[in-house]
Amino acid sequence: MKKTQRIELLEKQHKVFDLFDEFQMEYRKSIQGIEDKWDQYVNDDFFIGSRYLSVLERFPPHNMRFRYVCLLKNGKAIGVFYFQVIHISLADSLQGSSSIKRGLASLFQANLLINGNTLVTGAYGHYIQEPLDNTTVFRLVDQVSKIVAEELGKDGVKVRAHLKKDYPLSTIPDDISSSKYTAFQVQPNMEFDFDKKWKSIDDYKTSLKSKYRVRMKRAKKKAQGIFKKSLGLEDLTRLKETMYDQYMQTVDGAGFNLFHLHKDYNIGLKQEFGEEFIVIGYFKDEEAQELLGYYTLIKNANDLDAHFLGYQHSENAKHQTYLNFLYDMVEHGINESSHSINLSRTAMEIKSSIGAKDVPLKIFMKYNNKILNKILPKALDYFVPEDKWLPRNPFK
User: Fold this and answer.
1) 8 Å CB contact between 356 and 187
2) C-alpha angle 36/42/48, rounded to 5°?
3) What is the SS3 string spanning the chain?
4) What is the pLDDT of residue 76?
5) Is the predicted pLDDT of residue 5 greater than 70, yes or no?
6) Are the C-beta atoms of residues 305 and 342 closer than 8 Å to each other?
7) Distance between CA atoms of 337 and 293, rounded to whole angstroms?
C-alpha cells in the first residue's frame, strides 16, 4: 500500500498498557475525511469540533503540524486525541529578555508535541467517553503521545519534548512522580459569569460598587467619538494588514509567545462560521477607514469565548480601548443571554476589575533528553514569567 494512500489505521496494534491491550489506534495527519466520525465522539465544544480544526489546518501558524487519533475498542472509537507539533525556540519566544537569559534559553530548542491547542486557553487535547480515573487518563494520554511521536519520527520529525496542556486542577492525578513530567502553572484562565437578573448593561452597572461604576463611566466617556462596527468578510479582507499589525503589537507586549497567527486566520473563521464569529472594530471615522482596534468573540453553545484582538497601543490610554473592549463584551453577552465569557489568559487584574474570576490550570512537560528533563523544573522557574497581580471584586 502506497504511503500516500494508506488510511493510517496503524498496522501494528500498539499495546497502550496492560489495561488497554485490546485497543487500536486510528492515526491521521488531517481532519479532512474524518469529520463526521470525529464529531460523533466529541462534545459540542467549538474548539474541538472538526469545523474549527479544519479552519486551523487551512490557516495555521507558521511551522505548525497537526495529528489526530481515534482510540478504538472492538472497532468503536471511545476517545479522540488532538495534537499540535511546533518547533520551539525558547530564546525566540522570550520577548525583551536579557542576552544572558536568551543565551540559556537557546539550550531548549525542540520539536514539541502538544496534546491540546496552543491558540486557546483550556483543555482541548482529548475527549474520552470511557469512565476512567484521572491517573488512567493521564497515563493513556502519555502512551498515545509516545506512539504519535514514533509515527512523526517516520516522517522525519523528531519529537524531543512533550506537553500536556491546561489541565483543570480537579482532573490532575494525586501522584505524577513516576511520569517524569514537570507540572507548572502559568497564567490562569479568566472567566466571567453572567447574573441571570441582568437584562441590560445598566443592570450590570447597578450591581457594581461605586468605585467601579465611576471607573466604567470614565472609560465610556473616553470612548465617545469612537465609531464601532461589526466587521464582515469584506471588511476583514480590506483591513487584514492593519489588523495583523495591531495583533502583533499586542503579542509583542506579552513577554512570551509560542506562535504568530496566520494573517488569514480571522478571514477563515468568518468564511466558515459567519455570525457565530463576531468581530467588532473601533474606528476614528464614521467611514470605518482608520482602525483603532478590534476584538473577536466566538459563540460557543450558550457561552462566549473572547478570541484574538489588537489595538493601537499608542491610543489605548486616550480612549481606554482595551477596557472598553471588555465592557462591550459584557454588554454583548447580556444581550445574547449568555451564561459566561471565557476571557482567556493575560491582563488578569483588569479582567478581574470587571468581574472575571481566575481559574487555575496546570501544564505538564517533559524532555526526552534525561539531562534536560532533570533540570527542566528549575529552568521553568527561571524562564516562565511570574505575573503578580491583585484580584479585584467590583460587585456590591
Assistant:
1) no
2) 90
3) CCCCCCCCECCCCCCCCHHHCCEEEEEECCCCCCHHHHHHHCCCCHHHCHHHHHHHHHCCCCCCEEEEEEEEECCEEEEEEEEEEEEEEHHHHECCCCHHHHHHHCCCEEEEEEECCCCCCCCCCEEECCCCCHHHHHHHHHHHHHHHHHHHHHCCCCEEEEEEEEEEHHHCCCCCHHHCCEEEECCCEEEEECCCCCCCHHHHHHHECHHHHHHHHHHHHHCCCCEEEECCHHHHHHCHHHHHHHHHHHHHCCCECCCCCCCCHHHHHHHHHHHHEEEEEEECCCCCCCEEEEEEEEEECCEEEEEEEEECHHHHHHHCHHHHHHHHHHHHHHHCCCCEEEEECCCHHHHHCCCCEEECEEEEEEECCHHHHHHHHHHHHHHCCCCCCCCCCCEC
4) 74
5) no
6) yes
7) 25
pLDDT digits (tens, 9 = 90+) for 73-91: 777 778 899 999 998 865 5
pLDDT tens by residue, 339-386:
999 999 889 999 999 999 999 999 999 999 898 899 888 887 777 667
Share of the chain above pLDDT 90, in %: 67
How confident is the model at residue 21, as a pLDDT?
56
Task: Report pLDDT for 13.
Answer: 45
Distance in angstroms (rounded) separating the CA atoms of residues 151 and 156? 9
Does residue 285 register a pLDDT over 60?
Answer: yes
Q: Which of these, 60, 25, 67, 105, lies nearest to 376 by C-alpha position?
A: 105
d(CA 71, CA 101): 41
